[in-house]
Amino acid sequence: MFKKIVWLGFSTKWKNAKDLEKYIASLVDWWANEFFTGYNPEYWSSKFGFEVSPNGRFAEHEQITDYETLKLIVEEVHKYDLEIFINLNAWYYTDQTFPLIKRMIEEFIELWIDWIICWNISILEYLKEIEYKWKINISTILALYNSEAIKYFLDNYKINKIILSREITLKEIENLVNEFPNTQFEVFWEWDFCRYNNWLCFAEHKYGAKDICTIVVNDLVIKKKFRADFKEFILDESLSNQEKVEKMDDEYADIYSQIATILWKIELWFLDKEPLVNELIKIINISKNRVDLYFDALQAINSMKNVNIMIYLRALKYLNLSEFSQLTNEIENSIKSWIKSLTNKTKEIWWLPKLKALELASFYAKWDNLNLYTYLFFSKFKNIETVKFPTRGRNYTEKIKLIESVLNDWKVDEKYLNRWISIERAHYDLTYLFWDKLWFRELLKQYN
Asked: Which domain holds residue 297?
């Protein structure tokens, strides 16, 4: 089972203060077996505040703010023979701030803090210079996406563990951990939905390359862009001015709008239906392998997502072609299973406001069940030591216990699969786990 890491962040003032002995004991009771924190002492915050942070955290209560509290934390963690490491992973350190970083490192050595997690090569060089004897982890912010980058750090520094960037996919993780079997890795279950490290985005979103951003997630297709060859067809004397204007058109309509427009035109008795039907078949063929063609039970029936699915199903029904029969059945089943699930839920909880409150309260908990699949995948690799997954303040002890149970039994109980889970929110990386990108359609069949 992977180590369970807990971040310790709180100031010593008023409401943020902690009874450290009881607090650390409670975390250990909840199966925490590794700790990490950030440090922003008075000699830093008095000069640079918390907006300029030495550890990538930007609020006072998200880090430890004085030496005495940090010392108590280290002592309490060590009572349980557990380790604590500390972040030095801000995006940059200047000549003005680096002397304070050196001072912090002296305090870390004095306190016997077990590890330093860093992303700055100047810190790595300094630790090598002073012959630092404790463990060093490479931060995700160093953006180690490939084997050459990992090899460089392993060859040049004494590295305890590589923390891979949030943005890489499961397939990329698999390749890297297999290539370096003697290196310990840490990976993230939750990522940033952007393929650029820590949101340093270049504003170029290509779904085909799995550069997933909210711009793309809304429709999973590349929208039309300005023509780079505009001069060529402007000077083309074989084209009329009207044809040139049409080529310059960058108007975008998603497939659902296109389908709705075609269906509307088909209903007009005076239009030739054959070219419209052919265009409809062309659009369905292009889009039939989209990963979002199912009715989303976590959205309202009249949400844009579900209205679009109804439009798509209406087109399939109109065409009534055998080549699309499986897709038609899959979409119909996703709607039927939602209706069945809602009907049963309503029977159990007849008071509708209570039903709504219950579902809102358990929304994230149900989504977190999807962590099971990813944990099963990560558990195949002996050199993945730690996996970070979101809890957002919910009852993470129950989820950790659930994951541990599944890993021990190597079985996912059917009760953990729920029609109300939003598979869409997790399918991107899970594509690599299940290989078939339409894996969820098979999953939903058991809930018809």
From this structure: 254-368+417-445
